[in-house]
């Protein structure tokens, strides 16, 4: 099964990052370069991906970022599920680089927590086994799409960025294709620096979800959709520590008559 590997290269990034990504791709293919590679530069990331997809000869389109490294076995894992002719999308996992700086490690912890990311935590840390899913567990930097399904869905929408992959996956799923999550297809990817980079990334995701809602695409999901138990627990924790800290402040600031207090 021939695949076309599509990398949208941000020309403002150092070329050495792209070269590192390409080396890891070649190593995972045993140096044979079995699958064709497109590196697109001009225009937005989504426009570049669409342009490359239109030229691609492969039956499967594998979308990767230009600043990652694929882990050994990635292509075997991301492509194998397409033996089922009903599979339209397979999503892998992007994990943090080992030994990342502390400010990236904090972001990695937050991205890997179900409390902050809910189901989307599966994008950032391997969870469970191969399964059918939806757009909430798939991320474009480690995603393969059957070209037929991609073209049927109209490619990445250019009017809903970010979250363009979410819209694409929704359309492919609505057309009857299977969407699969494969926790064994792994790439290493840099995490944003905490706190500014992390806040900017989360704001970016939220903005994309807001655009989806404005266009009537997808569900109005939060990053985290808590049950009633979690709401009560969160309220109780806030009340607990607010009361405790208020008591500490009062005890420190107010000079009471201790003898009177004891009686």
Which secondary structure elements does this structure contain, and how are they paired or packed?
Blueprint: E1 3-8, H1 15-28, E2 36-40, H2 45-55, E3 60-65, E4 68-70, H3 74-79, E5 87-96, H4 102-111, H5 114-117, E6 131-132, E7 142-146, H6 147-152, H7 164-174, E8 178-189, H8 196-214, H9 228-253, H10 258-262
Parallel strand pairs: 1-2, 1-3, 5-8
Antiparallel strand pairs: 3-7, 4-8, 5-7, 6-8
H/E element sequence: EHEHEEHEHHEEHHEHHH
| Named CATH topology of the largest domain | Spore Coat Polysaccharide Biosynthesis Protein SpsA, Chain A
| CATH homologous superfamily (4th level) name of the largest domain | Spore Coat Polysaccharide Biosynthesis Protein SpsA, Chain A
How does the major sheet shape up? 8 strands, mixed
Low-confidence stretches: none
Number of DSSP strand runs: 8
Report the sheet-strand fraction.
15-25%
Q: Separation of termini? A: 85 Å
């Amino acid at each position: 099964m021939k695949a076309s590997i599509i990398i949208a290269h941000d020309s403002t990034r150092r070329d050495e990052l792209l070269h590192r990504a390409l080396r890891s791709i070649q190593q995972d293919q045993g140096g044979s370069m079995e699958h064709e590679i497109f590196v697109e530069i001009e225009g937005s990331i989504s426009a570049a991906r669409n342009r490359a997809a239109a030229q691609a000869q492969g039956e499967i389109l594998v979308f990767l970022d230009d600043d990652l490294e694929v882990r050994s076995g990635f292509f075997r894992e991301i492509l194998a599920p397409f033996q089922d002719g009903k599979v339209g999308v397979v999503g892998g996992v992007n994990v943090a680089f080992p030994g990342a700086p502390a400010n990236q490690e904090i972001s990695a912890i937050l991205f890997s927590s179900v409390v902050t990311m809910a189901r989307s935590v599966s994008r950032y840390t391997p969870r469970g086994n191969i399964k059918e899913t939806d757009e909430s567990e798939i991320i474009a930097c480690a995603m393969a799409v059957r070209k037929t399904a991609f073209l049927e869905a109209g490619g990445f929408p250019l009017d809903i960025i970010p979250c363009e992959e979410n819209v694409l996956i929704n359309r492919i799923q609505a057309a009857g294709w299977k969407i699969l999550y494969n926790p064994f297809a792994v790439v290493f990817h840099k995490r944003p620096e905490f706190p500014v980079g992390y806040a900017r990334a989360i704001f970016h995701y939220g903005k994309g979800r807001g655009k989806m809602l404005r266009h009537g695409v997808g569900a109005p999901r939060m990053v985290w959709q808590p049950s009633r138990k979690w709401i009560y627990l969160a309220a109780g924790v806030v009340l607990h520590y607010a009361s405790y800290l208020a008591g500490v402040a009062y005890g420190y600031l107010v000079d009471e008559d201790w003898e009177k207090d004891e009686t």
